[in-house]
Amino acid sequence: MATNLYDQAYELEKALRTSEEFLNLKKMYEEVENDETAKSMFDAFRNVQMELQQKQMSGQNITEDEVMNAQAIANQVQANQKVTQLMQAEQRMSEAIGELNKIIVKPLDELYGMMNK
Amino acid sequence: MATNLYDQAYELEKALRTSEEFLNLKKMYEEVENDETAKSMFDAFRNVQMELQQKQMSGQNITEDEVMNAQAIANQVQANQKVTQLMQAEQRMSEAIGELNKIIVKPLDELYGMMNK
Ligand SMILES: [Ca+2]
Ligand SMILES: [Ca+2]
């Protein structure tokens, strides 16, 4: 790969690493990491989410019990401020990554647009 | 989003736009675009690929006829040098994008690694 591409990718990585979005996410992770209750809720929520996602992706049915269990965990989680702050921080980071990606691949979008017109 | 993140994303976009990978891809697209035979093969191949992918993603069965038809088009396409060069250029560009993404999200990988250990 061209050196300049690498260089610019590393500069963006550095900017991401020092961005408010990332530093805030890191702080919120640490808050949850250092709080046993928050941590176990967060882990439980993440595990349930991943299980359901995997089932959906592999075409398996999700039972009513599983939906209710996931809902119960989601409700608990929403009552924990540290976990909700972490989730908001994740959401903001993920939106920023989405925006960055949109900017970066613009040349490709334009090229494909040309091709398909 | 923080200004510096935007700035660095735009610098990377500029680097991508002037990279050998992108300029080569653009050239190969134009070659195919200006060659009726190559263009119609390429479009047919892309359409068949997309159809099969959509079927797969929506959980529909792919018939033996459809597989054979896709294979026949793939064979034609592989005999056309302009189309194969375009596909190679796409492959190289997509690998470069993959590498860039890996670099950019390294801070997040590290953070998640910390969280899950
Ligand atoms: Ca620079
Ligand atoms: Ca710069």
Order of secondary-structure elements of chain A: HHHHHH
Indicate the mean pLDDT of chain A.
91
CATH class category of chain A:
Mainly Alpha
Largest interface: A-B, 41 and 41 residues
Strand content of chain A: under 5%
Can you name the CATH architecture of chain A?
A: Up-down Bundle
The class by helix and strand makeup of chain A works out as mainly alpha
Number of domains of chain A: 1
Low-confidence stretches of chain A: none
Associated small molecules: calcium ion
Q: What characterizes the major β-sheet of chain A?
A: none
What is the CA–CA distance across the termini of chain A? 30 Å
Work out the radius of gyration of chain A. 19 Å
CATH topology of chain A: YheA-like fold
Count of individual beta strands of chain A: 0
Task: Indicate the overall shape of chain A.
Answer: flat
**Proportion in helices of chain A:** over 70%
CATH level-4 homologous superfamily of chain A: YheA/YmcA-like
Oligomeric state, counting identical vs distinct chains = homodimer
How many helices of chain A does DSSP assign? Answer: 6
